Amino acid sequence: MPKNVRVCPKCRSHRVRYLTNIAGWLGPRKFICDECGHIGPFFIELDLDELKKQREEKTNDQP
User: Fold this and answer.
1) Domains in the chain with CATH codes
2) Number of Cβ atoms within 10 Å of the Cβ of 42
3) Angle formed at CA 36 by CA 33 and CA 62, multiple of 5 degrees
4) Is the pTM of this model over 0.90?
5) Residue 35 pLDDT grade (very low, low, confident, very high; cuts 50, 70, 90)
6) CB within 8 Å of 8: residues ≥ 6 apart
Protein backbone atom coordinates (compact mmCIF):
# COMPACT_ATOMS: atom_id res chain seq x y z
CA MET A 1 0.00 0.00 0.00
CA PRO A 2 1.51 3.38 -0.99
CA LYS A 3 2.09 5.89 1.75
CA ASN A 4 1.34 9.52 1.00
CA VAL A 5 3.07 12.48 2.61
CA ARG A 6 2.23 16.17 2.51
CA VAL A 7 4.87 18.36 0.93
CA CYS A 8 5.23 22.12 1.22
CA PRO A 9 4.49 23.83 -2.13
CA LYS A 10 7.08 26.51 -1.36
CA CYS A 11 10.19 24.58 -0.26
CA ARG A 12 9.20 20.93 -0.95
CA SER A 13 9.88 19.88 2.65
CA HIS A 14 7.95 16.94 4.07
CA ARG A 15 8.03 18.46 7.58
CA VAL A 16 4.40 19.63 7.43
CA ARG A 17 1.90 19.50 10.27
CA TYR A 18 -1.60 20.70 11.08
CA LEU A 19 -1.80 24.26 12.33
CA THR A 20 -4.08 24.12 15.31
CA ASN A 21 -6.28 27.01 16.21
CA ILE A 22 -9.28 27.43 18.41
CA ALA A 23 -11.71 27.82 15.50
CA GLY A 24 -10.35 24.92 13.44
CA TRP A 25 -13.69 23.21 13.19
CA LEU A 26 -15.31 26.33 11.70
CA GLY A 27 -13.10 26.68 8.66
CA PRO A 28 -10.78 24.68 6.47
CA ARG A 29 -7.79 22.91 8.01
CA LYS A 30 -4.55 24.79 7.69
CA PHE A 31 -1.08 23.34 7.59
CA ILE A 32 2.31 24.82 8.49
CA CYS A 33 5.73 23.89 7.13
CA ASP A 34 8.34 23.52 9.86
CA GLU A 35 11.14 24.33 7.40
CA CYS A 36 10.05 27.63 5.81
CA GLY A 37 6.99 28.59 7.88
CA HIS A 38 4.57 28.56 4.93
CA ILE A 39 0.95 28.42 6.14
CA GLY A 40 -2.03 27.46 4.01
CA PRO A 41 -4.95 25.10 3.48
CA PHE A 42 -3.44 23.40 0.43
CA PHE A 43 -0.29 21.31 0.45
CA ILE A 44 0.90 18.85 -2.16
CA GLU A 45 0.39 15.20 -1.31
CA LEU A 46 2.90 12.79 -2.85
CA ASP A 47 3.59 9.11 -2.71
CA LEU A 48 6.64 8.51 -0.49
CA ASP A 49 8.48 6.76 -3.35
CA GLU A 50 7.82 9.71 -5.66
CA LEU A 51 9.22 12.12 -3.08
CA LYS A 52 12.40 10.05 -2.76
CA LYS A 53 12.73 9.96 -6.55
CA GLN A 54 12.38 13.75 -6.82
CA ARG A 55 15.00 14.31 -4.13
CA GLU A 56 17.46 11.96 -5.86
CA GLU A 57 16.95 13.80 -9.14
CA LYS A 58 17.51 17.13 -7.42
CA THR A 59 20.79 16.00 -5.85
CA ASN A 60 21.96 14.54 -9.19
CA ASP A 61 21.25 17.83 -10.99
CA GLN A 62 23.43 19.88 -8.65
CA PRO A 63 27.08 20.27 -9.72
Assistant:
1) 4-61 (2.20.25)
2) 10
3) 115
4) no
5) very high
6) 14, 15, 16, 33, 35, 36, 38, 43, 44
